[in-house]
Amino acid sequence: MAVLKNGRLVGRVGNLVYRDVKGRTIVQSRPRRSKRGFQLTSRNSNFSVASMAASALYRELKDFALNLSTRELYNSIVSLLMGNPEVLQPEGLDNDWSLVPDSHLLPVEKRRSLPGLQNGAVGLDFAEGTYRVQIPPLKTSQIADSIHHVWKNVQEYERTFVLLYYDFETTSASVVGRWTSRRTKKGAKSKSVLIERDLIDLDGFPISKGLLVLAVGVRLYAAPSSSSYLNRPDYNPFVVTGIWKKH
Hints:
Helices cover 18% and strands 35% of the residues. The protein is α+β, with helices and mostly antiparallel strands.
């Protein structure tokens, strides 16, 4: 409420505040308290954690994808983690590794092409300190028209995967599993592959919490003697097949 003081109006009238400053009347808008203060602080904290995880994973995934990935992958991981804030919490009730929602077939770059080659989905499951990766065969006899312009130049290919581990405590990402097939001629029949290994970190200790990221890809070659890949920015058959969490 405003009052007259020495002939001047001092105090609040509605959303306006009258102040007497060195003999002059100053009128200001009434300050308002932000109701989103806690939410903003929490969101900023989550973004910081998500950004550190995305940066560490992006570096490893970019190397795996032959350096053809774009910042779109980093942005996708940040958005995914921000959309699932329970993943970023230091404690949780996960009894086993669980797939982060919407992390299936996370694009390494916008024009992902691997689903057009695979005859089925890649599987990952865990049992008694081990992990198993099931890689389906390639449907090399039924190539989609959208990728035929590259496939017609392929003579041989390799299938490959990488399993990454992100530790929230050290904010670091490392490769804990890697596999690459022998070169296969394009006309040969493709087969499914099952790889089972111990789930351990670089020091040989069991991995019991954090994030696990599985990415798969195909390396294409124009000639048997060639060491150069046909993979290129408009056709980059690498994809993140899922992110798993455990607290």
